[in-house]
């Protein structure tokens, strides 16, 4: 039982981090209806930048984090302006292909600019695990979970309460009607990408610390899809719940199955879950059902 | 307030849809544009509101003047900023948002302090929206959605309201209700209205001045009272002839032609 609990707690904590990465995806999908396949790569670039600022240049932590966030906002703006804006109004598939292309480009540019070797992101957080009622928990995970939850709550209330957030949902709902109301759709697209940039920066810092920064960091992006399909593509709450479920399930499954099959369970269980969800509830747990009038 | 002079609209740079439209909307009036399907009524409104740009359309000749300013071929959001709000046909609202959120989006261009007052005004005209303000707008009935669409436009405090077929697909009683509210908006709030309708009877009953469109051209225009009495309008748009209602059995091939099409 302790073994199970330990697996579950670890999984949930990792899941909160998946949720953070998925949040970037959801923000863009919610506001612009674009499916961003480059989310993991954005996180990777965020990781690279913070690692270089901290490691190679030795900036203090606060400066490095702020610098990373600013750099990622600039990058996200650039991506929106140069790649996605020209595609506004084009078929969905064009946008998907463009973001897949973007993913490859970022994967190439990252190591090119920042060197390929694995870097670490030293954060001033103790390594020694804590014992909480018999369970081992590492401090970085607690910090990570706290940051994730704060961000998720902030963005969640932003979309529900603030005027700008509501306008953003309106843009996502119908661009043309929004324009006729005097809303500058392009500005909101840029804003959504900037927000995704911030989330990617934070994701890069935390994931970079946990895994080390190199090209493989972009693989966290692969976990985004099961999470958002499970939670609902456009739901922030869905990203949280989906993240926790995926994290928990994969950790428990890996703990029990891996000893027999020799590893790899973590990689396929989330996708198995995703396929099942697609069959029984295609819009996810919290996604919007399409309203149909008959 | 709004003057179109000989406006031509072309799509994709080669399809001429509107062939020289001239019309005028006076401040404080209700002006209506009637005509059959495909006459170009909605396209005229889209040209004014700038939405043709999104469909690769363009005003290629003539001008659109609003309060002395030339506004053709501007972006829709710029036009909205000038105080022209376009309520599209088919009740385009934000399905995923609640009615209240829809209205908040409508007030996007107004200062925050006016929001409360705006909501109150809309709920005053459409009490039903207040009852249903927290459910998703996609689940409202057709009439309520049309009310919401007009209400959202009202939130923007428009100088000129472009209404595109507010009666489309609604039960006759609801249509009467909505037209009554449109009339009150004009009289009590002083909103200038350009109304596009297929329901010529309702439109002419409400409007001060009317234009009749066919095939991308304006073929008749007169004060609404006069148009209602016009023989051609009576037969082709109101479905009346001298003998009263006509049975389709009696329709002969030598019935009156639309002579002005030629």
Summarize the structure in words.
The complex is a heterodimer of chains A (294) and B (262). Chain A is an all-alpha fold. Chain A is built from eleven helices and two strands, in the order ααααββααααααα. Chain A is 72% helix and 2% strand. Chain A has a two-stranded antiparallel ribbon. In chain A, β1 and β2 form a beta hairpin. Chain A is globular. Chain B has a domain at 2-83 and 158-250: P-loop containing nucleotide triphosphate hydrolases (Rossmann fold, 3-Layer(aba) Sandwich). Chain B has helices at residues 41-49, 76-82, 99-106, 115-125, 127-131, 142-155, 172-189, 200-206, 224-229, 231-236, and strands spanning 2-11, 15-25, 30-35, 57-66, 69-70, 84-87, 160-164, 192-197, 209-214, 217-223, 240-241, 244-245. In chain B, the strands form three sheets. Chain B has a six-stranded mixed β-sheet with strand order 6-7-8-3-9-10, sandwiched between helices. Chain B has a four-stranded antiparallel β-sheet with strand order 2-1-4-5, with helices on one face. A two-stranded antiparallel sheet of chain B has the order 11-12. Chain B is globular. The relative contact order of chain B is 0.16. Chain A binds chain B through residues 89, 163, 166-167, 169-170, 172-174, 176-185, 288, 291, and chain B through 49-51, 54, 75-77, 80-81, 85-86, 88, 92-97, 101-102, 104-106, 108-109, 112, 136, 138-139, 152, 156.
What's this, in brief?
Chain A has 294 residues and is mainly α. Helix content of chain A is 72%, strand content 2%. The longest helix of chain A has 31 residues.
């Amino acid at each position: 039982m302790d073994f199970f609990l330990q697996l579950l707690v670890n999984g949930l904590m990792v899941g909160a981090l998946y949720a953070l990465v998925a949040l970037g995806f959801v923000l863009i999908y919610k506001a612009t209806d674009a499916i961003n396949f480059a989310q993991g790569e954005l996180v990777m670039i965020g990781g690279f930048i913070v690692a270089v600022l901290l490691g190679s240049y030795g900036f203090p932590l606060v400066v490095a984090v702020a610098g990373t966030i600013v750099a990622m906002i600039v990058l996200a703006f650039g991506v929106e302006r140069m790649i996605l804006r020209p595609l506004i109004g084009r078929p969905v598939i064009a946008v998907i292909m463009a973001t897949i292309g973007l993913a490859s480009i970022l994967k190439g540019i990252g190591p090119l600019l920042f060197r390929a070797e694995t870097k670490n992101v030293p954060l001033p957080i103790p390594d020694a695990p804590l014992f909480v009622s018999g369970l081992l928990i590492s401090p970085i995970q607690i910090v990570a979970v706290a940051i994730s939850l704060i961000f998720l709550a902030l963005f969640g209330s932003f979309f529900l309460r603030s005027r700008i957030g509501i306008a953003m949902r309106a843009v996502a709902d119908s661009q043309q009607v929004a324009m006729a109301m005097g809303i500058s759709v392009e500005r909101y697209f840029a804003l959504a990408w900037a927000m995704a940039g911030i989330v990617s920066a934070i994701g890069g810092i935390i994931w970079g610390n946990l895994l080390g920064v190199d090209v493989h960091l972009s693989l966290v992006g692969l976990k985004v899809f099961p999470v958002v399909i499970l939670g609902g593509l456009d739901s922030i709450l869905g990203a949280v719940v989906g993240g926790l479920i995926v994290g928990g399930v994969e950790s428990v499954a890996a703990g029990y199955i891996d000893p027999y099959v020799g590893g790899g369970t973590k990689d396929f269980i989330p996708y198995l879950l995703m396929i099942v969800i697609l069959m029984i509830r295609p819009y996810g747990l919290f996604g919007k059902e399409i309203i149909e009038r008959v | 307030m709004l003057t179109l002079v000989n406006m031509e609209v072309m799509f994709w740079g080669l399809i001429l849809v509107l062939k020289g439209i001239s019309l005028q909307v006076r401040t404080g009036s209700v002006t209506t544009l009637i005509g059959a399907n495909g006459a170009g009524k909605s396209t005229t409104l889209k040209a004014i509101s700038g939405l043709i740009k999104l469909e690769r359309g363009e005003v290629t000749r003539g001008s659109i003047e609003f309060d002395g300013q030339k506004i053709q071929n501007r972006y829709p959001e710029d036009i909205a900023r000038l105080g022209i709000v376009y309520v599209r046909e088919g009740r385009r609202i934000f399905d995923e948002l609640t009615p209240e959120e829809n209205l908040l989006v409508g007030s996007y261009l107004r200062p925050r302090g006016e929001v409360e007052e705006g909501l109150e005004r809309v709920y005053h005209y459409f009490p039903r929206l207040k009852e249903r303000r927290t459910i998703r707008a996609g689940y409202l009935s057709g009439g309520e959605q049309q009310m919401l669409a007009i209400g959202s436009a009202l939130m923007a405090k428009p100088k000129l309201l472009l209404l595109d077929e507010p009666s489309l697909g609604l039960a006759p009683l609801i249509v009467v209700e909505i037209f009554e509210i449109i009339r009150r908006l004009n009289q009590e709030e002083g909103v200038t209205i350009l109304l596009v309708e297929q329901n010529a009877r309702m439109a002419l009953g409400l409007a001060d001045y009317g234009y009749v469109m066919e095939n991308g051209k304006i073929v008749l225009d007169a004060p609404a009272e006069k148009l209602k009495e016009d023989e051609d309008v009576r037969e082709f748009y109101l479905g009346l002839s001298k003998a009263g209602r006509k049975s389709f059995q009696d329709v002969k091939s030598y019935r009156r032609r639309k002579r002005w099409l030629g």
